[in-house]
Design goal:
Number of helices of chain A: 10
Largest interface: A-B, 59 and 51 residues
Order of helices and strands of chain A: HHHHHHHHHH
Distance between the termini of chain B: 71 Å
Number of helices of chain B: 14
Structural class of chain A: mainly alpha
Shape of chain B: extended
Oligomer: heterodimer
Largest sheet of chain A: none
Mean pLDDT of chain B: 72
Strand content of chain A: under 5%
Strand order of the largest sheet of chain B: 1-4-3-2
Radius of gyration of chain B: 27 Å
Order of helices and strands of chain B: HHHHHHEEEEHHHHHHHH
Low-confidence stretches of chain A: 91-101, 180-190
Chain lengths: 190, 328
């Protein structure tokens, strides 16, 4: 299976043979999981989201057209799922604390590890200042390396709107992350 | 719009090198000459670089097998934590007899009802039985003797918007038991939900949340629920669910049971996630300061953690704090 392209794997799935599902999962689960993790701010919610995305990929395989990139299609499904989850109000503030606690441990010396962890918390807090649309755009651009055209396709908006979202997001992040004092501002603004 | 505004709007694209050749060239030239834009550019670049501090999060190890199982790509079912000692048909028959008997005893009429499980739960759990109908049973009419009966493997949590709880399972018919935290007969069924890995994480997580919200502190929680939470803490692959189980365990009046204390010590020793270990330290410290009789290995484990060079710094500090609070 490893030598087949995404499109070839999906054609097999479209014919009702689910054997390539594991290979597709291996190719994209880390990216999907990390996108959902940053978007939803919770490991548990990200795991559920990733499961749902791949189950939907199987269920709606016939809707995938070979002219699009599989990654873009999967990110679209993930973004839709995450937006739905964010609309369900109850787990927002609670889960953000959980995310801070569950940031992966680093293998550094304690003082360096603490500094690194503090930086990670600062960045995570800064990302939480963004609107969901801005956060989605920044995560896809900064962490997934997608182009504005791809992000526009995933977010269901124009490229111009993506530019605006990223610009505004960066303005917010820049202020929140500017220096140590900026970090304090960011934390106290919560 | 001034040149500066145009250039500053382009900067995010400049960062990811998404501008065409001439725009890129113009922008860099402007930044070279304009002090305001140069400062803006440096700050933006610093913020962009700092965003890279967030590490990639590893995919939980069980996720792949769960996905493949959901779409029927693995032949074997997940093995439940406790196997029924009797053959499955005998277990089902016994459970049906108890349910029907309990209902008959109270003289209630069981009206057929439409069950609408949540989408996630319904899709995730395929009933291995032929469903011939559905019934809703109030927990108050359920025989308490169901406790200790053979396990029903497919009990699942169904969200109830009215503050109550609904637990559903399939035997020869779809059965939904409704009730609230005061119904002790629900304890066994809730423990089944927690221990069944076939339940989606959301279902187990929602059940734990319900326990925390309704059964903590008031002396109502059963030892069976405490045991089930301890099992979740020991073995669930989802760190979020383990954290919730730990919090719930901490809030139960049965937190002082040896099983809960042992599970917390094991979590502190072995859990791969530092957040879980950190909360385990806090819970053990609470137990100690509340005067709970201490397992000697607890103090040893706290000492070990406080001194362990490669342990997470927060965990080490918390363990040292906990030791200072314990009257040795």
């Amino acid at each position: 299976m490893k030598h087949l392209s995404d499109q070839e794997l999906m054609r097999i799935v479209q014919d009702g043979n689910l054997t390539p599902a594991g290979e597709i999962f291996d190719r994209y689960s880390a990216r999907i999981y990390n996108f959902a993790y940053r978007f939803l701010k919770s490991g548990e919610a990200a795991e559920d989201a990733t499961q749902e995305v791949f189950v939907k990929m199987i269920r709606y395989a016939k809707q995938f057209h070979g002219d699009a990139k599989l990654s873009t299609w999967l990110f679209s499904i993930t973004a839709n799922h995450c937006r739905d989850q964010l609309r369900k109000a109850d787990n927002r503030t609670k889960e953000s604390e959980e995310t801070l606690l569950t940031l992966p441990a680093t293998g550094d010396a304690p003082d360096r590890a603490m500094e690194k962890k503090q930086n990670q918390i600062r960045v995570q807090k800064a990302l939480e200042l963004l609107t969901p649309e801005q956060r989605e755009a920044i995560i896809l651009s900064r962490y997934q390396g997608l182009s504005y055209a791809e992000i526009a396709q995933i977010a269901g908006c124009s490229e111009g709107a993506v530019k605006t979202r990223v610009f505004r997001a960066m303005e917010t992040l820049k202020k929140a992350l500017a220096g140590d004092a900026g970090g304090e501002r960011c934390l106290t603004a919560m | 719009m001034s040149d500066c505004n145009v250039i500053q709007e382009r900067m995010p694209q400049l960062l990811i090198e998404a501008l065409n050749g001439s725009d890129r060239e113009d922008s860099h030239q402007h930044i070279e000459l304009c002090a305001i834009c140069r400062e803006e550019w440096l700050e933006l670049r610093a913020a962009w670089a700092e965003l890279g501090e967030l590490p990639e999060v590893p995919v939980p190890p069980m996720m792949r097998s769960r996905f493949l199982e959901r779409i029927g790509q693995t032949p074997s079912r997940v093995i439940p934590f406790r196997r029924p000692e009797w053959p499955r048909w005998a277990a089902q028959a016994a459970a049906v007899a108890l349910l029907v008997g309990g209902s008959f005893w109270t003289g209630r009429t069981l009206a057929p009802a439409t069950i609408t499980p949540s989408a996630g739960v319904a899709q995730a759990t395929e009933a291995p039985y032929r469903i011939t109908g559905s019934r809703v049973i109030p927990a108050s009419s359920l025989s308490r003797e169901i406790e200790g009966t053979p396990r029903i493997d497919n009990v699942r949590y169904v969200p109830d918007g009215n503050g109550g709880i609904r637990l559903a399972f399939n035997l020869t018919s779809e059965v939904t038991v409704t009730g609230n935290a005061g119904d002790e007969s629900l304890a066994t069924l809730m423990a089944y939900v927690l221990e069944s890995r076939e339940n989606p994480d959301q279902s187990r997580s929602a059940t734990i949340q319900y326990i925390r919200d309704n059964w903590s502190g008031g002396g109502k929680a059963s030892p069976e629920i405490a045991r089930a939470l301890a099992t979740v803490l020991r073995s669930d692959s989802n760190e979020g669910v383990r954290l919730k189980a730990l919090d719930a365990l901490r809030s139960l009046p049965h937190q002082a049971t040896p099983d809960a204390q042992t599970a917390l010590i094991e979590a502190l020793k072995n859990d791969p996630n530092p957040a879980v270990r950190l909360k385990a330290v806090e819970a053990l410290a609470e137990m100690a300061t509340a005067g709970t009789p201490l397992d000697p290995s607890m103090v040893d484990t706290l000492r070990e953690k406080a001194d362990q060079g490669d342990e997470n710094l927060y965990v080490r500090v918390k363990a040292a704090e906990a030791l200072s609070q314990i009257d040795l």
